């Protein structure tokens, strides 16, 4: 991963960037000093910093859980008869193998990047997380543990039955906020080589864990069950840097244990209450009688901050998402859509001062706070699920819009993020400011109520005014300002904001549309001649124009944004920056082997110098840009290229259990291969989850114009996935369902009363 831009680079800029503090958190009411960008390596208030180079200490082996000595401090649960401790059988523990001094394989050095998260099972219901390995045990190592608002409230939860750890046989996510772990062991005194006890653990992000034991033995028997608990109350940033500190001492508290420190108080209570508790070892113990075919269950509940339950904001907030469903010939569409909606729900944040307004965190585990550019992009792709998320996101960001002197007034603040090895860092505030009016304009077409549009229009006008003021008498918008390069993708976003914003202003009877359209025309003329690099292969768009006027010629996946022109009234697609011939050539490049990896769109062409399949800006597949390319290619009529990218992304989705990470390696797909995960990618991620919604709905080509009472359908003529039926979407505030046949014909099956099908 590339090293992050130092915070000092943003402290005094005029682009709205904010310095970063390296804190992982949820919603920060003092923001705009809070949002983080979408660069996995960039620090920010909701990012963990890149840890320093150091040798990690070798983690100690799991210590044996000691029997309770007669003199140990112990409290019997209320209402129980005091009893002696149960000592595990002699075979319960095995002394650890001593380390070999001449071991030829020394411990590996700690990576310079973030701890690997690609193998973790991450349960999310912000502001809470539960991060586990596929073994099920929480051993207090790496990222393992329960978290609330970026702090680990429980780091260790180790289960032993009859003195032994169950053998892990399966681990899987059952929902965005839950994971199920299954282990087995032979615990019956008469047991043979076959396991006769199944141990199931269901772990939830809200801090609860249910442990169920089921016996298959032919006779009843008694078995001791032990749970060892611990916490360090460390922040996620410190854990990532390897500076989390020691565990805190525990004390007995009601039917469980309690830890207190400068960062707060955590309690774990058990139901049923344990028969023995040993605070010095953080140990809870039961003795269960297991009957053949009968289950016994115990539940652990983790609470923080003086006993306050780990409840998520989404549990008390009405969901802004419609319960969309997909069916048809392609079996992978429905699980992708389902997991996408679940992940979006899990990533919701709420402004405490304005509880009706929700927006999305960037992703887990690294970016659990608001990132404006990603929040706006994700809300835009999720518009087929309703306009509630768009409204909440726009209102929340309008409240932090900058005022003050020219050059900053009207910006949505955001830090700078790394842009790869070829270009300097870019400002996410620039992108957010351009996305704001575009999202409002499109949400209005999807059915955003007029009162909400009227309320948000002044903030959109300030964004558009900032755009024209910043450009001044020039043609292009540089990023960052002043003196930064003129990026190809930035011009695409700026052009879309101007065209969509002009129509929105005109529709709402506000001035300024003519000036925006005039600048957009000048930008199109200049871009088509000054940003296009001719060659024997047909040419390509430059990735950027540098301050000295030279062109950055590398072929980048960000060029896909040139095809994302936006939705206008009457179901029209807005004009783009390229002419017809250039659009055709770009489609050929996006669908060619250099950018199309077979799993999705690479961030940098495979033939470009310095290509790195794991480089987050230099060759990895970014799901958001892949979805943008697919939708843009289909809208422009290049379904062959769009189909190839779509099929590759669906294949990758299946390999990732239909829960797409924000990015993965851009290795060439071969027969029998699987996509390589990126070890530092967020999963779930807001843009990847909303991209799943866009991928499913773009097949039907839904283009609503709710103010005009019409909807236009532009399905793919080739029907690459056969028949598809989408139900439970929302257009004009009402349920909307559409069917696309194997012949590429679309039919509306449910719609708002009075909504007409336009041709």
Strand content: 15-25%
Oligomer: single chain
Shape: elongated
Number of helices: 13
Q: Please state the CA-atom Rg, rounded to the nearest Å.
A: 28 Å
Number of strands: 37
Please give the largest β-sheet: 9 strands, antiparallel
Strand-pairing-aware structural class: alpha+beta
**What integer is the average pLDDT?**
86
Q: What percentage of residues falls in helices of 4 or more residues?
A: 10-25%
Task: Tell me the span between the first and last alpha carbons.
Answer: 48 Å
Low confidence ranges? 1-14, 17-111, 307-311
What this model shows, in words?
The structure is a single chain. The chain is 23% helix and 24% strand. A hairpin with a 2-residue loop joins β4 (145-148) and β5 (151-154). The model is unreliable at 1-14, 17-111 and 307-311 (pLDDT under 50). The protein is an alpha+beta fold. Strands 7, 8, 9, 10, 12, 13, 14, 17 and 18 form a 9-stranded antiparallel β-sheet that branches. A 5-stranded antiparallel β-sheet has the order 3-6-11-16-15, with no helix packed on it. The longest helix has 22 residues, at 450-471. α4 (372-381) runs parallel beside α13 (686-698) and α6 (428-446) packs parallel to α8.
Brief synopsis:
This protein is an alpha+beta fold and 759 residues long. It is 23% helix and 24% strand.
């Amino acid at each position: 991963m590339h090293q992050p831009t130092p915070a000092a680079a943003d402290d005094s800029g005029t682009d709205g960037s904010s310095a970063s503090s390296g804190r992982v958190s949820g919603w920060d009411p003092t923001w705009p000093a809070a949002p983080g960008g979408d660069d996995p390596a960039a620090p920010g208030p909701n990012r963990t910093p890149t840890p320093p180079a150091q040798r990690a200490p070798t983690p100690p082996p799991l210590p044996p859980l000691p029997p309770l000595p007669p003199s140990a401090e112990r409290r019997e649960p209320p209402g129980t008869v005091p009893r002696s401790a149960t000592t595990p059988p002699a075979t319960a523990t095995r002394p650890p193998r001593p380390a070999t001094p001449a071991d030829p394989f020394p411990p590996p050095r700690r990576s310079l990047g973030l701890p690997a998260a690609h193998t973790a099972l991450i349960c999310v219901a912000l502001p809470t997380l539960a991060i586990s390995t596929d073994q099920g045990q929480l051993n207090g190592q790496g990222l393992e543990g329960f978290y609330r608002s970026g702090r680990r409230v429980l780091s260790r939860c180790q289960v032993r039955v009859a003195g032994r750890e169950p053998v892990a046989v399966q681990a899987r996510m059952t929902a965005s906020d839950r994971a199920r772990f299954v282990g087995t062991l032979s615990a019956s005194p008469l047991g043979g080589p076959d396991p006769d006890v199944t141990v199931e653990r269901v772990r939830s992000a809200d801090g609860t864990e249910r442990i169920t034991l089921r016996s298959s033995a032919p006779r009843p028997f008694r078995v001791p069950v032990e749970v060892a608990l611990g916490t360090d109350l460390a922040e996620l940033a410190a854990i990532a840097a390897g500076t989390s500190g020691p565990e805190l001492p525990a004390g007995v508290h009601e039917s469980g244990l309690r830890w207190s420190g400068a960062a707060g108080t955590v309690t774990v209570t058990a139901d049923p209450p344990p028969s023995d508790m040993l605070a010095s070892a953080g140990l809870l113990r039961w003795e269960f009688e297991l009957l053949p075919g009968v289950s016994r269950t115990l539940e652990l509940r983790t609470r923080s901050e003086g006993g306050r339950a780990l409840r998520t904001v989404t549990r008390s907030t009405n969901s802004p998402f419609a319960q969309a469903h997909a069916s048809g010939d392609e079996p992978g569409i429905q699980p992708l859509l389902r997991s996408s909606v679940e992940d979006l729900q899990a990533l919701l944040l709420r402004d405490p001062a304005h509880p009706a307004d929700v927006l999305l965190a960037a992703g887990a585990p690294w970016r659990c706070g608001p990132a404006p550019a990603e929040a706006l992009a994700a809300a835009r792709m999720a518009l087929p699920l309703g306009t509630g998320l768009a409204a909440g996101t726009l209102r929340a960001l309008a409240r932090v819009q900058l005022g003050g002197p020219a050059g900053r007034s009207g910006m949505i603040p955001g830090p700078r993020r790394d842009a790869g090895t070829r270009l300097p860092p870019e400002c996410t505030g620039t992108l957010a400011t351009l996305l704001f009016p575009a999202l409002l304009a499109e949400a209005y077409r999807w059915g955003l109520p007029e009162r909400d549009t009227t309320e948000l229009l002044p903030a959109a006008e300030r964004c558009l005014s900032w755009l024209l003021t910043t450009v001044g008498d020039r043609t292009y918008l540089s990023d960052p300002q002043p003196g930064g390069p003129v990026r190809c993708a930035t011009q695409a976003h700026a052009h879309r904001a101007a065209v969509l914003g002009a129509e929105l202003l005109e529709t709402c009877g506000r001035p300024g549309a003519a000036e925006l359209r005039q600048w957009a025309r000048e930008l199109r003329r200049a871009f088509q001649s000054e940003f296009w690099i001719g060659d024997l292969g047909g040419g390509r768009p430059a990735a950027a124009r540098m301050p000295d006027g030279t062109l950055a010629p590398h072929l980048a996946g960000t060029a896909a944004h040139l095809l994302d022109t936006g939705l206008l009234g009457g179901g029209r697609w807005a004009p783009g920056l390229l002419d017809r011939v250039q659009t055709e050539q770009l489609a050929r490049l996006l669908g060619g082997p250099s950018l199309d990896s077979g799993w999705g769109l690479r961030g940098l062409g495979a033939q470009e110098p310095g290509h790195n399949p794991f480089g987050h800006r230099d060759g990895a597949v970014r799901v958001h840009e892949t979805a943008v390319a697919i939708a843009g290619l289909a809208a422009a009529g290049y379904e062959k290229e769009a189909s190839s990218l779509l099929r590759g992304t669906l294949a990758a989705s299946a390999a990732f259990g239909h829960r797409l990470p924000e990015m993965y390696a851009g290795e060439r797909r071969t027969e029998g291969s699987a996509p390589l995960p990126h070890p530092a990618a967020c999963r779930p991620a807001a843009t990847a989850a909303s991209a799943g919604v866009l991928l499913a709905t773009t097949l039907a080509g839904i283009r609503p114009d709710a103010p005009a009472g019409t909807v236009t359908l532009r399905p793919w003529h080739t029907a690459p996935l056969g028949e598809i039926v989408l139900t439970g979407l929302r257009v004009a505030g009402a349920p909307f369902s559409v069917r696309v046949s194997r012949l590429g014909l679309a039919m509306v099956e449910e719609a708002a009363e009075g909504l007409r099908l336009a041709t």
